[in-house]
Amino acid sequence: MSREEALDFTAGKLKALAAQHGPETVAFFKHGIGAYYVEHALKAFGTPNVAAPSFARCRGPRDVGFNLTFGTDPGSPETTDISHTRCLVLVGSHLGENMHNSQVQEFADALRNGATVIVVDPRFSTAASKAKYWLPIRPGTDTALLLAWTNVIVREGLYDREFVGTYGLGFDQFAAAIAGNTPQWAAEQTGLDAALIETTAREIARHRPVSLIHPGLRSTWYGNDAQRGRALALLNALMGNWGRQGGFYLPHYIGIDEYPGMPSYPKSARGKADNPVVDGRKRWPFVSQAVTTGLREATITGEPYPVKAWVVDATNLLQAMPGRARTLEAIDRLDLLVVIDTVPSEIAGYADVVLPEAVYLERFDTLNDDCLRLSFLALRQPVVEPPHEQKAGWWIGRELGKRLGVEAFFPWKDMEDCLRTRITNAGFNWDELRAKGILTGPPQPIYVDDGAALEFGTPSGKVEFYSAQLADKGFDPVPRYEPPDPAPAGMLRLITGRAPMHTFSRTQGNAYLHGLMPTNEVWIHPAQAAKFKLRDGQRVRLRNQDGVVSDPAPLRATERIHPECVYMVHGFGLTNPEWKTGYRHGASTAQLTTRVKIDPLMGGTSIHTNCVALEAA
Ligand SMILES: Nc1nc2c(c(=O)[nH]1)N[C@H]1C(S)=C(S)[C@@H](COP(=O)(O)OP(=O)(O)OC[C@H]3O[C@@H](n4cnc5c(=O)[nH]c(N)nc54)[C@H](O)[C@@H]3O)O[C@H]1N2
Ligand SMILES: Nc1nc2c(c(=O)[nH]1)N[C@H]1C(S)=C(S)[C@@H](COP(=O)(O)OP(=O)(O)OC[C@H]3O[C@@H](n4cnc5c(=O)[nH]c(N)nc54)[C@H](O)[C@@H]3O)O[C@H]1N2
Ligand SMILES: [Mo]
């Protein structure tokens, strides 16, 4: 099929499906800014069903926990003022292995400046190796630790009374609710020493307000994660660090207008399919973005209405979503699966139509104008031509849009025309942006002490220590500890994270990065390795609680990990034989993630709820 035939076929099929089931029958899955114009075409066509795994599978629980507390989420990259902090607490955030480049540089600044670092992780991470205190917590028990820290800080009066008095709401109810969460109680849950919990609580408070408890990013751990996000938010609130140097800075943003004459999207009367109303309320009342697994369920059940076509752009749903079997079941029920990718990804192997996209060095994308310390406009622009028939996302979006009859949403000649017009109309210089790649706005105050305004977007306009919103919907208004489900006998909990040289599954085929790290390893405590009669370096398979068996990966027996869990880097074990590099290298954590607990507040799908036994390969 030629590219034109593929686009004609796709648009023809989408129109036929929309005629039968309504435009909402099309679901769009994406990850990242490159997917902007395909999303634009499909929203113009009339579907509200757009979801990214970076919400319910990644940052969602934390965002919701912070939103419920401060009325805003910490963003990505987070508005954390790491370089200036005197005390940095990392709860699972494995900076340095998780390569958020700017944050890793700030982390290095903080270390150079002599900041105290406290790392809570069942694994001795790279960040833990830089820390004054490493708390090797029992996996899944973090909320107990966070509540015990707040308990010490409240009981000993170490919190910022002025901040809490001026901006807080429901502090007394909060203090009463956590009164029983003593260090002795938390020690039993977390396996940590009660004295260490007390010492670290005092250490965190000693530096306030220049004390920062990092909100984390991927917070989909155990299924009750939004409440852990709230516990993290509340601990920060006690430090009075919102809008303070070395805490959370207050970001700025340059909003610029759309291309002139852009129509607005049609509004669907049927609403989104991912989070329908059940018994008079949204299934997950506090979602702030769509839930990918909700769209998958709608595809399988046909409820609340049939979803018959998926367009998947820059996300490998087979690795990114939990429960591969369920994803394949949904794909089986589709009338059309279109995949837009830069390589023959696993999901592309299941597609009816593949539209190859040019890589980021070969294309314009829409402007990046995120919120950061300085407001900015950043441009991605082509530096080389695509080698073959690949096209930029904006081109694919517009060509699809034309064929879907929504050309009015693409009034510009090409992306350069679109961007130049928007930039020029906003009073900026296009040639300067092209030459520099980024334009910044004037410096504005980012700290309260320099005159930045402190405002909270919660219903009360206050920092909600007690959440009436949660109470109204039948949830705990103050976070409460729920222990993780115990591992089945003879099994260990599977936990996962990142390695600096790889990005999920997307870099597995890159020969240079593959050369740096050709496989993941299975980290296990030596005492547990001995129980499974395995030795360091041996190739092993993992068998999960549902009988799913992984490809082999080498064992790494190390005291750097808590005896109750095994650890593996995510993204390995790809199954598309088209891949010359990376095909069936290492074990796939996604394949072993068959059991999820769903966060009742926001539909987050937990990852660390799976357990494994090990056997020699
Ligand atoms: N088991 C398990 N699952 C997880 C996670 C985990 O740790 N464990 N992590 C979760 C998290 S935090 C996240 S954010 C998600 C990430 O989920 P995804 O972003 O879906 O991750 P990848 O598996 O890397 O898939 C990305 C796909 O995009 C393609 N791609 C890369 N660049 C481009 C481009 O410019 N254009 C187009 N069109 N395609 C491109 C790649 O080739 C690849 O096929 O996964 C989540 N899922
Ligand atoms: N190199 C690289 N960097 C990346 C990415 C990438 O693919 N590659 N992806 C980016 C994305 S989208 C995301 S979301 C982030 C994810 O990065 P983060 O948000 O930092 O990490 P997580 O994956 O949530 O957490 C992994 C860490 O949590 C620890 N952990 C596991 N279980 C528990 C527990 O019960 N309690 C505690 N306290 N710790 C636990 C693990 O041992 C590991 O050190 O990384 C980003 N940075
Ligand atoms: Mo993520």
What report would you give on this structure?
It is built from 20 helices and 21 strands. α2 packs parallel to α14 and α5 packs antiparallel against α8. The longest helix has 19 residues. The chain is an alpha/beta fold and 617 residues long. The protein has a six-stranded mixed β-sheet with strand order 17-19-18-21-16-20. A five-stranded parallel β-sheet has the order 2-1-10-11-12, covered by helices on one side. Helix content is 32%, strand content 13%. The structure holds ligand MGD (2 copies) and molybdenum atom. One ligand MGD binds next to α3, α12, β11 and α20.
Secondary-structure map:
Blueprint: H1 3-21, E1 26-30, H2 36-45, E2 50-51, H3 53-70, E3 87-91, H4 101-112, E4 116-120, E5 133-135, H5 142-155, H6 161-167, E6 168-169, H7 171-177, H8 183-190, H9 194-206, E7 211-213, H10 225-239, E8 277-278, E9 281-282, H11 292-301, E10 309-313, H12 317-320, H13 324-333, E11 336-341, E12 353-356, E13 376-378, H14 393-403, H15 415-425, H16 430-436, E14 438-440, E15 463-464, H17 468-472, E16 492-497, H18 511-516, E17 522-524, H19 526-531, E18 539-544, E19 553-557, E20 565-569, H20 589-592, E21 611-616
Parallel strand pairs: 1-2, 1-10, 3-4, 3-7, 4-5, 6-15, 10-11, 11-12, 16-20, 17-19
Antiparallel strand pairs: 8-9, 13-14, 16-21, 18-19, 18-21
Molybdenum atom (MO) is lined by residues 54, 58, 217-218.
| Beta strand % | 5-15%
Ends: how far apart? 42 Å
Q: Quickly count the helices.
A: 20
Small molecules in complex: ligand MGD, molybdenum atom
